[in-house]
Design brief:
Blueprint: H1 8-16, E1 22-23, E2 28-29, E3 43-47, H2 50-63, E4 70-71, E5 80-83, E6 86-90, H3 95-112, H4 117-121, E7 124-133, E8 141-148, E9 156-158, E10 164-166, H5 173-182, E11 190-197, H6 217-229, E12 232-236, H7 239-249, E13 254-263, H8 274-296
Parallel strand pairs: 3-6, 3-7, 7-13, 8-11, 11-12
Antiparallel strand pairs: 1-2, 4-5, 5-6, 7-12, 8-13, 9-10
Helix pairs in contact: 3-7, 5-8
The structure holds uracil.
């Protein structure tokens, strides 16, 4: 962990009881008795949709002898469940939404682990999501090596008019390799590679089917081929920020696992059938659960 990256000025006051921390978008605070039941958290699993979070939590509970599933009271922003050492939380769509979830979850982990850096570093983080494949057919699952923005530069934010805050979007190689190992022999189509996170589904992903169109068929193809030549294997909307923030605190174990819904070299619209989409989602969930089982229920892992 990187103590210097942690906002201790604010967070240590929560530990001493000088002031509470209100995780507003999750509808809980550090004074909420509900959080006492989460002290043993070992993994935080995020996904875009609340429905997926509920399914994941039920599935993890079943693997843990029907462990109690604790639901957070507020669900109008993010859906959150905790069971058997794993906190499952939705983050909505895109980096502005997901960054709120990630920052509040990081604060929650600091509180739950009482600022103990070693205990915090035991927590595994993952986002399981969907993406557009770059040269990969629908159904392929990408475990990300590095999260970048659409210009192949790392995640950054405006520092007002004064400059730019830069971050590191690298995903830890050891965790990625452990995920691939846990899935050996599964028959699932898994690859690893760089992922770009965009701020828009249509324009920044060079789609030609948006309400607004800025590109031609040629410039779109050129962009996607440039991405491919630079090792990018998929496009989604959260990964660069996720790695950036977790690296700021120096977490050593986190990953992103995304199913490709289509091959962007071949089209823009998601035309897979509901059955195919369901299968893609099941498969990326399986990749996560194969690793979670190895990590938390014995049998190796990292
Ligand atoms: N999610 C994205 O951001 N892009 C796609 O093409 C598919 C899913």
């Amino acid at each position: 962990m990187k103590a210097e990256g942690i906002n201790r000025e604010f967070l240590d006051g929560v530990l001493t009881g000088a002031h509470p921390d209100v995780y507003y978008h999750f509808g809980v605070s550090s004074e909420d008795p509900l959080l006492e039941g989460l002290r043993d958290v070992r993994a935080i699993i995020m996904a875009g949709s609340g429905g997926r979070i509920k399914e994941f939590a039920e599935r993890w509970s079943a693997l843990n002898g029907g462990s109690e599933v604790i639901a957070f009271p507020k669900e109008d922003r993010f859906v959150t469940r905790y069971t058997a050492g794993v906190l499952f939380a939705s983050h909505g769509m895109g980096m502005p939404s997901a960054s709120i979830a990630v920052q509040e979850l990081m604060r929650m982990v600091y509180f739950l682990k009482r600022g103990d850096l070693e205990a915090m570093d035991q927590v595994f983080w993952a986002r399981v999501g969907t993406s557009g494949g770059v040269g990969l057919p629908g159904g392929t699952i990408v475990v990300t090596s590095e999260g970048l923005m659409a210009d192949l530069k790392p995640y950054r934010l405006l520092q007002g008019a004064r400059g730019v805050y830069w971050f590191d979007g690298t995903f830890p190689a050891a965790t990625r390799e452990a995920i691939l190992r846990a899935n050996e022999g599964s028959g699932l189509p898994i690859v690893s590679g760089k992922t770009i996170a965009t701020n828009e589904f249509f324009l920044e992903q060079f789609r030609l089917d948006g309400a607004i169109r800025m590109e031609t068929a040629e410039s779109k193809q050129e962009f996607l081929e440039w991405l491919h030549e630079n090792g990018v294997r998929n496009i989604e909307m959260e990964g660069a920020m996720l790695a950036a923030y977790l690296n700021s605190w120096g977490f050593s174990s986190f990953a992103m696992i995304c199913a490709c819904l289509l091959n962007r070299l071949e089209g823009d619209q998601v035309t897979s059938s509901p059955d195919q989409l369901h299968q893609f989602s099941e498969d990326s969930g399986d990749v996560l659960f194969n690793y979670l089982r190895s990590l938390l229920l014995g049998g190796g892992g990292e």
